């Protein structure tokens, strides 16, 4: 990933304003509140909650490109130690995708969202069923009985969060998964070096603003 890449992704105002403008589109800037993207209290957060750079990840558990980049993203977040990672379950590919997102978000209520997320991202291929996803989550150590109970008890909150994620993605003009917001930039699939360079550039821009 080079400088030309960043020039194509520049976005104004992500870190410090109440409206997000991507690609210079004023209509999008008026339609999306940054705080709702970065600070939704229901959205799971990983990495360092007090990190100096935030990555917002929009993904689908049946998206092979999401799975490809998730490994490198997790590695960068772990090695860096100063990245706040916001998970945005954006289930757009199939009914099973919706089920997977619901299961992962229900696991949050027993403190196991990241475990469930990682388990689903490790499933190979792009057409896994809801039953296969549930089995993978169970194998990761999540209490499935409690998960089902939490899914019933917190179903309205989970549904509302997924609808907000969808509205945010559309409001920002996203057209597929994965999509990542990294500091002032928006991008799709990145590899390990790509994520590292994007984070470094986000920090550099924050330092001069």
Automatic annotation (TrEMBL):
GO terms for molecular function: oxidoreductase activity. Residues 20-204 form the Thioredoxin domain. Transmembrane segments: none annotated. InterPro entries: DSBA-like_thioredoxin_dom, TAT_signal, Thioredoxin-like_sf, Thioredoxin_domain. Keywords: Disulfide bond, Oxidoreductase, Redox-active center, Signal. Pfam families: DSBA (PF01323). Residues 1-29 form the signal peptide. PANTHER family: DISULFIDE BOND FORMATION PROTEIN D, GLUTATHIONE S-TRANSFERASE KAPPA. This is DsbA family protein. It comes from Kaistia nematophila. The lineage of its organism: Bacteria, Pseudomonadati, Pseudomonadota, Alphaproteobacteria, Hyphomicrobiales.
